[in-house]
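ping. complex inputs:
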Amino acid sequence: MLKPKQLLLIPSILFLTNALHSQNVFQEAAKDPLEIHGNFNLNSQYYLTDSVIAAPTVAEKFLMNGYANVIATKGAFSAGARYESYENALLGFDPRYKGSGFPYRYFSFENKGLNVTVGNFYEQFGTGMLLRSYEERDLGLDNAMDGIRVKYDLGNGIRVKGLVGRQRYFFAKGDGIVRAIDGEVNLNEAIEGWKDNKLKLLVGANFISKFQEDNNPDLVLPENVGAYSGRITARYANFSLTGEYAFKENDPSADNRNIYKPGQGLFVSASYSKKGFGINLSAKHIDNMSFRSDRTEGFNNLTINYLPALTKQHTYNLAATLYPYATQPTGEVAFQGDIVFRLKKKTWYGGKYGTRILINSSLAFGLDSTGINDQKTTRQGYSAKFFSPGQQAYFQDINVSVERKLNKTFKVKAMYMNMMVNNLITRYAGLNGSFNGKIYADIAVLDVLYKIRPKHALRAEFQALWSDQDMGDWGTVVLEYTYSPHWFIAIIDQYNYGNSVEKNQIHYPYGTFGYINGGNRVSLGFGRQKAGLFCVGGVCRVVPASNGLTITVTSSF
Amino acid sequence: MKNLILVTTLILSTLVAFGQTRTIPSVDLVDIDGNSFNSSEILNEGKPILINFWATWCSPCKRELNNIAEVYDDWIEETGVVVYAISIDDARNAPKVKPYVDGVAWDYKVLLDVNSDFRRQLGVVNVPHSFLVDNNGKIVHQHTSYQEGDEIELYEKIKKLANGEVLD
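pong. complex structure:
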């Protein structure tokens, strides 16, 4: 962690560069101005006990998550640090985020295609199937590397990256060391005469190795685990195809119950698009691909790779927070199709301004696998057929949304979706406890925007979710009034009117009010928030039910 | 707390000492066709640039870019502005960005920031978030979030920049 004294070093280094004129990179940087920028974010809540929604009593009454990033750049040099404070962490965040400190600091420079970072950094190779260190601050997820990264752009479309580091674990670092190298070649740039070739090709490959001591008394565990992947992106006119295949050597872990079976993953995605029409079809096979720098860890901790769900990331509250799906890293086969098109304006079917239509469907299954009883011998655990969906359906979703501007004052958006989630796999625990089986739901949304005057608008959302399982039917109404560019006020009420348990037929009213100016945003909220899943990408955080006053401040400078 | 005061003092004193200028940081991105693209190549021959961070899962982002799309031709004609729409969609949605952009027929220059590196360098907390770049390539204005009608004030600023005026 960075101490204040160390932080003072950063500007000193930058000042020092002014004085050093022996090398070109320093000379050039000396001419550039020093620029300092960053951001600030504060999320806090004053909690009220609310036994109706099972919101727990918070001993501290008031909880807060806050951070500020500061980045200083001078020409090719950049240095930065993040201060984080959790006094104490908001409900739903891992309580190991406790106290304050500087868990992130780095220094980097660039010189003729060579880019070096020392300290903390985020990195992704290919689709991230084997390596992605990233942050989702609102999820409390941060697996930043601490170490050294070197990137070299060799020109001619050839790029190489290498890194060694340990990953962030709350205010400490994980046990294991990650070593990784990645290379990528743009063949149209690398091969002479291919520049104007209609077929565009990009290939890449990487190797990742993690080291963690074997301290298991019963098993002989591999201390070094290697994994490698290859990827390709091809484009021809309006078509594009991208794919990555990854293989992971045997990696016994808490996730796979210490089996010695290797892991593999394949992701393929094909698209066709032209102006006014776009389609994407994707498929993936994931088998035993959980990959962490500490084999004993769980949840979102110390993950080296990123396995996002192959499903639509919904934005409407009921569709997004009740039954979202997250990838099962131990094994799944999934498919998704996505179509976007525009009905022409000034036609009888497209209306005066045209109409946008989005159709999406996704399916996820368990592996087609057979158990092997070899716990005492080879410990392979099971065998699975490649790219073959198993009997067990995990998730399905089909949804259609239509958007049309009716006239200068009205815009309408409508969405319908039908979904199924297998709660034996996802294990959502709602107000009624955990439902054992498949949850089927239909969701309908009508979103109307009424532009009262050019800068004044009223928006209303009417959402309904119908289900015979779990918590039953829900209805949601959102009303939002905005006065551009500074003010907004909104109220939302979620009502679990169809809950089979009468005392759980609860209203969740919540109001928010805020002010925006340039890079600043301040908002106040008050009311009930239902328990649910808050997801970004394929990763989710369980948000417990709460009641109280929230204060949010963000600033970019 | 002591740390926080120290950092704040440090920032403020440095700002006073150097004044405030901001250039587009150099970050490796990918263009919508999959080619590598460095953010320092975001240029518009001495005319204003609007950099807008968005994502396919962000409703207000799409509302903003759809609203600007309706008037974009007029904006270009009157001011020569160019819009760079930076998608922060990660590996989950990145393959869907091009079909979406083509499907809704946007004419923006679209770049992919799949691991939020550019977003981090520009201090963007949430999307949508936009930056205005003046005729000299300096970032002179930013705005977070989108509310219906925000593009009206944004365009007033773009017109000023196109005329070489300084924003207050």
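The longest helix of chain A spans residues 4-19.
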